[in-house]
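Need the bound structure for 2-hydroxyethylsulfonic acid, inputs here:
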Amino acid sequence: MATQRTVLITGATAGIGEAIARLLAGHPFRLILCGRRADRLKQLADELSARTEVHTLRFDITRRQEVAAALDSLPPEWKRIDVLVNNAGGAHGLDPIQSGNVDDWEAMIDANVKGLLYVSRGILPGMADRKSGHVINIGSIAGREVYAGGNVYCASKFAVDALSRGMRIDLNSAGVKVTQISPGLVETEFSLVRFKGDTSRAATPYQGITPLVGKDIADLVLFVLTRPDHVVVADLVVFPTAQASATVVNRANR
Ligand code: 8X3
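Answer from helper R.:
Posting the output first, comments after.
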């Protein structure tokens, strides 16, 4: 039987993070589920506890002290984290740069870049010391291509791309694996958050196509985590079949 690994997932209460948690719960992994929403964390943990050991950490990833305190609070039997899934983050607004909302910019940089760094800084030293571990960063096609109104969101995801490469280099001598998975259009709460709850605008990116869902990304996470020790999947870009780039989407064929 494969050894059970401990996986910490940020942004585990919805979307891609939740789908990853649900899928991994049925395989040899124990889970540390992280998120801001205590009720959703508890509900998911209660449900998945029937299938694996689950621990929850409630914190706001944008608050450095909260992140550090939450990781410090892990009981000894949960302190050894084998897999870190940096999934939390999102987009706020789609305004041109000249009329962008500075609060939106800060929210994206704080969560997508600084939050990822705060969590990583707490967990990577243990992986480096043990000379084992796997980091999976959920990037985006927005980290490869810039599109109209994407400006700061794209910048934050370009930063995730740079950090994924930097982590891979810096952790190379420790044998820690680093994978980046960069999805295109995935239907989750992502668009609802980007458009601040405007349901009709939020639906537009997915109109006329069959988008990816969280489970499609979770399948890739399980695949990269189950490669042999000598194999690391460094970088994956994944689209719905109807998508060819950040801006080329065939809406005529469904
Ligand atoms: C989400 C994909 O194309 O909306 O990161 O930026 S996109």
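Comments: The pocket of 2-hydroxyethylsulfonic acid is lined by residues 140-142, 184-185, 246 (CB under 6 Å). The longest helix spans residues 102-130.
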